[in-house]
Amino acid sequence: MDSDRRHAAAVALGELGRSHDHRDRADAGHGLAGFAEMPEVLGPLRELLLDPGDTFVTRVTAEALLRRQDRVGLTIVASALAAADSHHSDWIHTALHDVFSVFAGDRDNAVQLCEEMFGDPDERVALGARQMHGALAEIDPVLRPVEQG
Fold first, then answer.
1. Cα(88)–Cα(80) distance, integer angstroms
2. Where does residue 90 rank: exposed (0-12), middle (13-18), buried (19+ CB within 10 A)?
3. How many domains does the chain have?
4. CATH classification at residue 84
5. What is the pTM of this model?
6. pLDDT tens per residue, range 10-27
7. Within 13 Å, how many C-alpha atoms sit on residue 52's CB side?
8. Which of 30, 37, 44, 102 lies at a 20 to 30 A Cα distance from 80?
9. Residue-range definition of the domain harbouring residue 103
10. What percent of the chain has pLDDT over 90?
C-alpha cells in the first residue's frame, strides 16, 4: 500500500468536501469513506455527514460509510447520528435502511457491532450506536439464510 498516495488522495477529497457545490461534497463523502480508517479524514467525514447545505451529502456519505460494514464506518455514522438534527437523522436512517434491508446476515452483523459500541468511551458513539441499534431492529431484511431441517 502506498501511504503517500493514499494520504494525498484523502487530502484532495477533503478539499473537495469544502466545495460550494453539493455534488462535489457528496462525491467527497463517498470517496473519503474508503479512507475512514485514516485519522485525518474523521473531521471531514463528520462534517459531511452533518452537511449544513444539503442532506443529499449526508445520505451519500452515510451510505458509503455503512457499506463498509465494519466498526470504523459504523462508529463514524453513530457519532454523527448522536449529534444530528431531525433532517440529518432522517437521511442517516434512510441510508441504514438502504444498506441493511436486503441481507439478514449484514443487518445482524451491524446489530452486533452496535451492541459492542454501547460501551464506547465516547458518549456520542455510544448514544448513536443505541439509536442505530433501534433502527436496525426495525428493519426486516428481504433475504434470509435457508434453514436446514
1. 9
2. middle
3. 1
4. 1.25.10
5. 0.96
6. 999 999 999 999 999 999
7. 2
8. 102
9. 3-137
10. 95
Return the pLDDT at 1: 73
Q: How far apart are CA 100 and CA 121, in angstroms?
A: 26
Query: Can you name the residues that pair with 143 across neighbouring β-strands?
Result: 103
- Rounded to the nearest 10 degrees, the angle between the axes of helix 104-117 and helix 86-100 is 130
Helices 42-49 and 71-83 pack at an angle, to 10 degrees, of 50
Is residue 149 in a domain?
A: no
Supply φ then ψ for residue 103, to 5 degrees.
Answer: -100, 125
All three cell numbers of 56: 443529499
Answer whether residue 145 is part of any domain: no
75 burial (CB, 10 Å; 0-12 / 13-18 / 19+) is: buried
Q: Can you tell me the distance from the alpha carbon of 27 to that of 20, in angstroms, rounded to the nearest whole number? A: 12
Question: pLDDT (tens digit, 9 = 90+) per residue, 24-52?
Answer: 999 999 999 999 999 999 999 999 999 99
CA pair distance 60, 96, nearest whole angstrom? 11
Q: Which residue has the cell 442505530?
A: 132
